[in-house]
């Protein structure tokens, strides 16, 4: 009796191991979306999306994957690319670089994709770019707004960079806030780099910097910072603190009477997702600088069409917003489509050469084009101000803004 | 002088928040002898429950009152189903409760879509004295923390339930021989610790907003507080939490916050090295 029990459990154990290893091999975080038609002579073009579907950046990664699903469906429904359908392969990078490298390697080595779009944080981009570009000999598009300075060949960036975030925004803040700036930020690469750029623009626009300070990423109590801001009579807080600290920071600033006394909050990455972090009155008047806001749909028919198509297909909680890299993903995929059409092939060098000067006439927030030789994207920029829990567009760039990178 | 007043209030209020979070952790660690790594997620659940109540349109204070009951009930069930299997092996208990915490955290992340969500304070605004502003809700948290601390101490030190808890900790087999159902007492103690975490979560969610990693932030601080304060007594973790909370809110006033963050842990390690038994070395509950 005892013996048979043991054998049974060993057999069950082996069965479980087999099941588990099968699950690991297949990868629980992978999705393959096959087109519903095929090209007889050649297989489908394979598009890899490597993004954070789970973990702390899941809210953004799921949006990006949804944007890719929407666009691939549109392209396939209208006849595909070069007469071939697109097969979409989505891998989870799980907000964790070590998991990501393995999963991206699957996209490159097993699935042999023709393009990878993805990565949200800069550390993620740095972790996976080598796998994709050097060892993988594949094209890589990074869609998120970031600190700039990424000049690797075959890596194209389609989100806004500091020059686009700051050049229009800081003079506006000086005019609509004041000259005395505080630059608080979380202690990692993006806040440090964007503050260094902002410092130059502030000083050349006639503003002054009262203090610049960095905080541990998980700090959630900012009483000493708030007290310094109030006692130094700061006019503008140019915030580069990221969640989770940013919400208690803004709340403490509000409670200390910063906005009541005429202070202005500026924060370049704040999109619709972040408005919910605080109650509307706590961040009333907060200004941000992005390439897209949902309210643009009111006066731009293209943005309205994209926004409503997305909302119709994905009515769940993952919003189509600039900070989630949804706009960068849209732009990236459409620019790549234009480049493939021009090149007439999916060969990496030919597509990269065409992508170098690719243009799209329609995108969220307006048209976009690559700055030739820079591998960064020119786009329209807008300044939005939070009013009653919504953004109101108060300024827009005169035409496409140059990224000034590389 | 003005800055000193503001600073004292802010430091006191953050100290109170840490005490509130650590109280449940300390009670479970001291009275049951296991480290509950899911404690941070019980805080998160309290916060999430309050958000749920708010999002269906009920008043926030109702959520704050109901959160400890809901989280306590869940703690009771989890103790019966999972945690009690680990009493013989405290190290395994850490891993087991960590796994529980992971499941709770990722479930909440799924439910909130990974977003950060705000919950309004039941009593908002600030009290202004001259040019100084004191956040009212932080004042409320300080008051409630003091009350909860006193009530928990009274419960453990002066009631017959407290006597049974202490008996079960001191000598489980003798307690059983004396007719105390130790397994029931363990369940109740665990549920009580979970309920305190739920209350803490409900009270702090208006300050920090709701996000899936809310608990982790406090978990590490909480463990350092318990180590510094000393495991085994009621007063130890409370004293440790006040010390750690005060230091981590006070040091950023004096130096760069990045250095302050590290320094708190360095000081804690040095302190534990010099005084391994912690601030308060006694066992049980002093009357």
Kindly report the spatial arrangement of strands forming the biggest sheet of chain B: 1-2
Uncertain runs of chain B are none
Question: Separation of termini of chain B?
Answer: 38 Å
Q: How confident is the prediction overall: mean pLDDT of chain A?
A: 90
Oligomer: heterodimer
Rg of chain A (CA only): 23 Å
List the helices and strands and how they pair.
The complex is a heterodimer of chains A (406) and B (287).
Chain A lengths: L1 H25 L3 E4 L11 E7 L6 H20 L8 E7 L4 H14 L4 E4 L3 H12 L5 E4 L12 E3 L4 H5 L2 H8 L3 E7 L2 H16 L3 E8 L7 H9 L4 E3 L7 H10 L8 E3 L5 H4 L11 E4 L10 H13 L12 H18 L4 H8 L3 E2 L7 E4 L4 E4 L2 E6 L2 E7 L10
Parallel strand pairs in A: 2-3, 2-4, 4-5, 5-6, 7-8, 7-9, 9-10
Antiparallel strand pairs in A: 1-3, 11-15, 12-13, 13-14, 15-16
Helix pairs in contact in A: 2-12, 3-4, 12-13
Chain B lengths: L1 H31 L6 H17 L4 H22 L8 H23 L13 E4 L2 E4 H23 L1 H11 L1 H6 L4 H27 L5 H16 L5 H20 L2 H18 L13
Antiparallel strand pairs in B: 1-2
Helix pairs in contact in B: 1-5, 1-8, 1-9, 1-10, 2-3, 2-4, 2-8, 2-9, 3-8, 5-6, 6-8, 9-10, 9-11, 10-11
